[in-house]
Write a structure and sequence with these properties.
With 235 residues, this protein is of the alpha+beta class. It has helices at residues 41-58, 129-134, 139-161, 207-210, 216-228, and strands at 4-5, 9-13, 18-23, 26-29, 34-37, 65-68, 73-77, 80-81, 84-91, 107-117, 126-127, 165-172, 174-176, 182-184, 193-197. A hairpin with an 8-residue loop joins strand 10 and strand 11. Bound molecules: guanosine-5'-monophosphate (5GP).
């Protein structure tokens, strides 16, 4: 079975319907144009993802997470992934500023969902339900992914708010398991979400790297500690 190597992760299929998801210390931004390595980032993202998948499972969301398999590795259920990124936004930031005449930091009256087609050569273009249908993904499947994404948003937004952190936006990826169920896959980490300190607006996510806002590991460690209530034990 083929090992899949992405920019920040490796997925190693096992022969029992499971896979190892290994988080790398590599960081990339702007479709791979900006690159760097941060010692400890793989560990932090693996642990934060595991923690958030557990929170979601406890709240009734089906995820691919099975367990932690080492410092920067998770064991997950193998899924047939949809080539779609589902982005949920609560506050104006990032690429939304290019679409709506609203200032960064404006709270949205209700969450916005966006779909992107995962294709580096096209630069992950935004798509709608009609494009998805042409790609072989039915209206029903898209609606189910959107409905799960909104539930994830409700759970995580509240969870982070209780810890003084604003969940600004995030990206999810879904797949189908062997039983044909649509399941949340990939990762949920500061690489794939925007987290702002609710008081100061300080970024605790990959924008620190994208826009040179400070030390990435410090930001990810602060997020880890505020989320889990424990100091990070390893880099
Ligand atoms: P934006 O469209 O504003 O760049 O991103 C919206 C949210 O989705 C951000 O939290 C961002 O981190 C996440 N996101 C969107 N596309 C990608 C992607 O290709 N890779 C990663 N890691 N995150 C993404």
């Amino acid at each position: 079975m083929q090992v899949y190597e992405g920019k920040a992760k490796k997925v190693i299929p096992l022969d029992d319907g499971k896979a190892i998801m290994e988080f790398k210390d590599d960081a990339t931004a702007f479709n791979g144009e900006k690159k760097a390595q941060f010692r400890g980032k793989g560990w932090l993202n693996a642990q934060i993802s595991a923690f958030l998948f557990k929170v979601l499972e406890e709240n009734g969301i089906k995820t691919h997470f099975i367990g932690i398999a080492g410092d920067n590795r998770l064991i997950v259920e193998r899924l047939k992934m949809y080539p779609v990124e589902v982005v949920v936004r609560n506050v104006v930031a990032g690429s939304l500023k290019k679409r709506l005449p609203l200032e960064e930091g404006t709270e949205l009256p209700e969450p916005i969902i966006e779909l992107y087609y995962k294709d580096d050569s096209l630069g992950d273009p935004m798509i709608n339900h009609h494009h998805a249908k042409v790609l072989g993904i039915s209206e029903e499947e898209i609606k189910e992914m959107e409905s799960i994404a909104l539930k994830v948003n409700e759970i995580l937004r509240k969870y982070f708010a209780e810890r003084g952190i604003t969940l600004v936006d995030f990206k999810l990826e879904f797949g189908r398991n062997e039983r044909g169920e649509i399941v949340l896959g990939d990762e949920i980490s500061p690489d794939t979400c925007r987290f702002w300190d609710a008081e100061t607006g300080k970024s605790l996510d990959k924008d620190v790297f994208r826009f040179d806002k400070g030390d990435l590991i410090n930001a990810y460690e602060e997020l880890y500690e505020r989320l889990t209530g424990q100091a990070p034990t390893r880099r």
